[in-house]
Amino acid sequence: MQTQVIRNISRMPSWIRQNLGRESGYGGTHLAVHGNRLHTVCEEARCPNRGECWSRGTATFMLLGDTCTRACGFCAVKTGKPGWFDADEPQRVAEAAAGLNLNYIVLTSVNRDDLEDGGAWVFAESLRQLRTRQPEIGVEFLTPDFRNVQDEAVAIVMDAVNSRPLPPSPFPLPSLVWGHNVETVPRLYKTARKGSQYERSLELLEKAGKQAGVEAKSALMLGLGETREEVIEVLKDLKSAGVDRVSLGQYLRPSLDNLPVAEYIHPDVFAELENEARALGFAWVKAGPLVRSSYYAEEIQGKND
After folding, report:
1. At what angle do helices 89-99 and 24-35 cross, to 10 degrees?
2. What are the helix (H) ranges across the chain?
3. Distance CA 210, CA 129 (A)
4. SS3 68
5. 179: CB partners within 8 A, 6+ apart
6. β-strand partners of 78
7. DSSP code of 27?
8. What's the mean pLDDT when you consider all of the chain?
């Protein structure tokens, strides 16, 4: 029996333009990623900005393999039982970052509910390895929710943060930007984020944001069927949880096996929501159809005056 495919609401509108990207920096990024046997969310999640970002010489590295223990309806990353752990991965991440001459790096991972610490050690060790080579590098984590081990995971990561304080810099950055994406509004969690809980995500963000030197960050995808009022309520919840940075982007269906697009949000609406977020007090806001949580994450100019 064939599964019925639910179509997107319409064709992609003209304002969504994806840069395929084959400029001078693309080859170097490809070599740094694949030469060090690393995964990126750019490839595994089929990010529409891969061409642009790789051409700029940057990528979002995805730790702990390419297989996730959860099956979110929006995500193209494959689901299964990973059975994989590579203790040398943090060192190769640091080598790739040095090869690309990055001064800011974003690290994410698949969900690894099979690991005792949810994968927190790999994030912590990656931070140590990065700062051993480049003490002043800005580091941003985009972590899972660490399900039943949040306190342990926070302690593991903060041990790495505190073991190697940042040197003085004319461009002050937080010791760590700790991101975790709520992705969508609570009403849509059962279809979009199976295995996750909205309240659990807020709890992790609150715990991260309370740590000295840490700025908490989150992101929302729009176009899954949420209302504007629901989005504003999520923004208020994030601000109450101590989140400093937020991004909002358009959900784009990565394959026919994923959830359909319910609405393409006009750029003017994103601009309005950006203003709403700033009015709520967020220090760093990015909003637009092709914005993703790590898109131009290195720009500290996103902060309010």
Report:
1. 160
2. 24-35, 41-44, 50-55, 89-99, 120-133, 150-163, 189-192, 198-209, 228-240, 267-280
3. 24
4. strand
5. 106, 140, 141, 142, 143, 216, 217, 218, 219, 245, 293
6. 67
7. H
8. 84
For Cα atoms 161, 163, 166, give the angle at the middle one, nearest 5 degrees: 65
Distance between CA atoms of 9 and 32, rounded to whole angstroms? 38
Q: Using the structure block, give the residue that is written with the tokens 């931070």.
A: 127
Choose among 222, 214, 276, 266: nearest CA to 243: 214
Query: What stretch of H or E contains 221?
Result: strand 214-222
Residue 105's CB is within 10 A of a number of other CB atoms, namely 26
pLDDT digits (tens, 9 = 90+) for 121-131: 999 999 999 99
Contact between 152 and 184 (Cβ < 8 Å)? no
Between CA 305 and CA 299 the distance in angstroms is: 14
Residue type, 127: L
Tokens of 26: 């693309």
Contact 273, 238 (CB under 8 A): no
* Of the candidates 148, 176, 141, 150, the residue with the CA atom closest to the CA atom of residue 161: 176
The β-bridge relationship of strands 60-63 and 39-40 is: antiparallel
Cα-based distances in Å from 296 to 23, 60, 189, 287: 17, 11, 27, 11
User: Among candidates 214, 148, 225, 159, which has minimal Cα distance to 192?
Assistant: 225
Higher pLDDT, 243 or 54: 243
Domain 66-86+109-302 classification at class level: alpha beta
d(CA 87, CA 78) in angstroms, rounded, equals: 22
DSSP designation for 183: B
Structure tokens at 235: 């923004």
Split at pLDDT 50, 70, 90, the class of 304 is: very low
- How many Å apart are CA 263 and CA 260, to the nearest integer? 9
CA distances from 149 to 126, 144, 214, 277, 291 (A): 19, 11, 19, 30, 30
Tokens describing residue 83:
């059975």
